[in-house]
Design brief:
64% of the residues lie in helices and 3% in strands. The chain is an all-alpha fold. It has one domain: Rhomboid-like fold (Up-down Bundle). Strand 1 and strand 2 form a beta hairpin.
């Protein structure tokens, strides 16, 4: 007759063997978006409504946060994209002219055209990606330094209040609006720079902070003064500021700052609008880069004639 201790050991062994062949019970998981616990069989987070599938935006966001700082990830991603394209333009200009552009020296216009700078005749001919790519291109080290400092100062304010997905949409929408205004005002002008988007973000904050008292009102006054000073500087001879792009981005931001909600998408309609903003912005970016690469040989051949 087996002792109680031996029986206990045999029972434990039987349980372990049974566990090897039995299907494990599903366990709760952590939401990709908000970090709350989600039921094992739930496909949507009950707290924030985020889709829990492996290919959802929330999952991609979680992967991105592994390499991008969790605080203001879109701002850092935009800064990285701008500096990356500046490095590409710098290397291409060096190869084209055998001399690196200095602090105030401009990139080779042919290189900027290849990378998607705004040129009115091309835009009117249907190359609409030239309303997107200039928001990531810059002419000189001084140019990108000033614009990226402004983005680093203003971007996090918009991102923290409107959320990363709306923020990306606002950056692109205001930048495109500014470049459209620039195309109308300077139909033969060649321009690039993130200043249209930055003015757009300034407009968003001016509208958003309008009814708020205290420090918000003081900060809003500072933004207005900053915008006016830069617009006035753009009227001075010898300074090649794209004031039409600045005004176009600013006006678009003033409008969108009142139209776009800063609240969490709690209803199906709000979640649909947010999804359209998110995936629409991503598709516009991917399409623009693809169009630049697709037309690169033809544009280079035309410029070399």
């Amino acid at each position: 007759m087996l002792s109680p201790r031996m029986r206990w050991k045999l029972d434990r062994l039987r349980e372990r063997l049974a566990g090897l062949f039995a299907s494990p019970e599903p366990k709760p998981k952590v939401c990709f978006n908000c970090g709350k616990l989600v039921g094992a069989v739930q496909t949507v987070c009950p707290e924030c409504g985020a889709n829990q599938s492996a290919v959802s935006f929330s999952a991609l966001k979680r992967i991105g946060l592994a390499v991008i700082p969790a605080e203001n990830p879109v701002t850092y991603a935009l800064l990285f994209a701008n500096f990356l394209l500046y490095a590409v333009a710098w290397l291409a200009t060096l190869r084209a002219s055998d001399a690196p552009p200095g602090l105030f020296a401009s990139m080779d216009p042919r290189v900027m055209l290849l990378l998607g700078a705004k040129f009115g005749p091309y835009v009117l001919h249907g190359e609409l990606w030239r309303l997107v790519m200039p928001n990531f291109l810059h002419w000189s080290l001084w140019h990108i330094g000033f614009n990226m400092y402004a983005l680093w100062q203003i971007g996090p304010m918009v991102e923290e209040n409107f959320g990363p997905r709306r923020y990306l949409f606002l950056y692109l929408a205001t930048g495109i609006s500014g470049l459209l205004a620039s195309t109308v005002w300077y139909p033969l002008g060649l321009s690039a720079g993130a200043s249209a988007s930055i003015f757009g973000l300034i407009g968003v904050l001016i509208s958003y902070l309008g009814p708020r008292p205290g420090f918000a009102r003081h900060y809003r006054s500072q933004l207005i003064r900053w915008a006016v000073i830069i617009l006035v500087l753009g009227l001075m001879p010898g300074l090649s500021f794209d004031n039409a792009g600045h005004v176009g981005g600013l006006v678009a931001g003033l409008i969108l700052g009142r139209v776009i909600s800063d609240r969490r998408a709690a209803t199906p309609g709000a979640r649909l609008r947010l999804a359209l903003m998110t995936w629409g912005s991503a598709l516009v970016l991917v399409w623009s880069v693809a169009m630049v690469l697709w037309h690169l040989p033809a544009t280079q051949q035309w410029l070399n004639r």
